[in-house]
Amino acid sequence: MKKWTKWGVEALMTVSVLLGSGQPSSAAETLTDTYKDYRANAYWSEAMKWGIEKGITEGYKTDEGMLLKPDLSITEAQYLAFLIRYLDKEELVQTASSSPNWSASVYKLAQKYNLSYQLNKKAQSLSITRGKVATILAEVMTKKRLSKEEAVQWMYDQHITVGYGSQPTYDSFQPNTPISRGQIMTFLYRLDQQPIEKSIGLVLDLTLQQEEKQVGDMVNSERAKAGEKALMIDPVLSAIARIKAQDMALNGYFAHLSPTYGKVDELIKMGNVPYFSRGMYGENIALGYHTAESVMDGWMNSPSHHDNIMDHDYSHIGIGLFEWNGRKYWVQEFFGRTW
What we know:
With 339 residues, the protein is of the alpha+beta class. It is 41% helix and 12% strand. The strands form two sheets. The chain has a five-stranded mixed β-sheet. The protein has a three-stranded antiparallel β-sheet with strand order 2-3-4, with no helix packed on it. Helix 8 (210-225) packs parallel to helix 11 (292-300). The longest helix is centred in the first third of the chain and has 21 residues, at 76-96. The protein is elongated, with a radius of gyration of 23 Å. The N and C termini lie close together (12 Å).
């Protein structure tokens, strides 16, 4: 059972290319002996061989012949392409078929799974650092938002890296140093050897922002006045609500149906939490309210939004806020079990 409401007041609603000099090679040319710069004794030799066999990288066809360019630094877009090819190559192929720009398809999937990519278009074309690589990789594997320090420690714990110093510390990882193609492929190769689940999924930030918590507290205050039970302010639902708010901001729409995630229940189920696999769902969205108090006033003074907030059958709520170009996008996600 899904619950939807109607327009309210003041904009309220309820409810296979790599870059480099030269052209990429044909996918069929994957034998390492065809690459002029392949070195069998290099630290990256096995990793590159593996990457070619997996279709993660192809190398470059140049006037000098086929090259791997293992020491060449890579951009964020190229790294994301490597990572997504490793985790879900078929989805990248399907997404690329609908986009003429290879990096657009990569970033479409990066947004879908809420990866820590740069919103600044200029930054997307700059060399990516080792610390940023570690952050994205660790978040994809753990499905949680992590600090750079936590991500580097995860890399050590999973034996994906040993760093550059005698001790595996954050500084010895050299997080601010640009990373090369050889290093990237080595990280992915070592990851592949580890007995952990390797799949791409929604990365959730489980930390509630102050204004989000204020909205949740005000919801329960209003419910208490009406004799309704308090809703659990759920960190997973709040992370999902925040993702929906970001999706609306970045894709320039204001609606329940997301071009990225689909319907509310489809987005919530992407969080991969068994508890939310079945139930009834509702959503309130709002745009342009500057404070938690003002958006709650708007929702409470709109009958359809008010009904969602006060519904007796809901047990959980998530609150999400995303600010973009000076405008605040607000989302409430509601859930109630039906079994």
